[in-house]
Design a protein that fits this description.
Elements: H1 4-16, E1 27-34, E2 45-47, H2 49-62, E3 66-77, E4 83-94, E5 99-112, E6 115-122, H3 125-132
Parallel strand pairs: 1-6
Antiparallel strand pairs: 1-2, 3-4, 4-5, 5-6
């Protein structure tokens, strides 16, 4: 049986392979992606497998970075067996400049039957924007 920890491990592997975060078979039809701290002008909620796939593919294609590491991972099991809270730090390089930066994240993941139902990610938008645009 695929657990929420397994689902996160798959996400992490895809980040470090510099691939899109999800494949269609990883998402439930009714999956929800939330980013409460999204950059201005970006959506904070996306619902549905096709919409999430479109958003994450476009986002990955537009993000001029290479993920080098996902470290300091701490997984907190909740009383709900479908839900985990994950703390992690992503390290990335901007190939055009060679600049490397890291940022901490927190994600709340709900999975059922091996498929992601809900991913809520709290990201340090300001830190990410500074790393991409140091000027």
């Amino acid at each position: 049986m695929t657990t929420p920890r397994d689902v996160f491990a798959e996400m992490r592997q895809r980040w470090l392979a510099n691939d899109v975060t999800f494949e269609p078979d990883q998402l439930a039809d009714e999956a929800v992606l939330e980013m409460p701290m999204a950059a201005p002008g970006q959506p904070t909620r996306i619902q549905g497998r096709a919409q999430i796939l479109d958003f994450t593919r476009a986002g990955r294609a537009a993000l001029p970075i290479r993920f080098d590491d996902c470290r300091n991972v701490v997984v907190h099991q909740t009383t709900d067996p479908e839900v985990i809270v994950v703390e992690y730090e992503l390290v990335a390089t901007v190939p055009a400049t060679g600049a490397t930066a890291s940022a901490p994240f927190v994600g709340v993941l709900r999975a059922r039957d091996g498929k992601l139902l809900h991913w809520r990610e709290y990201q340090p938008t300001h830190t990410i924007m500074q790393a991409l645009n140091p000027a």
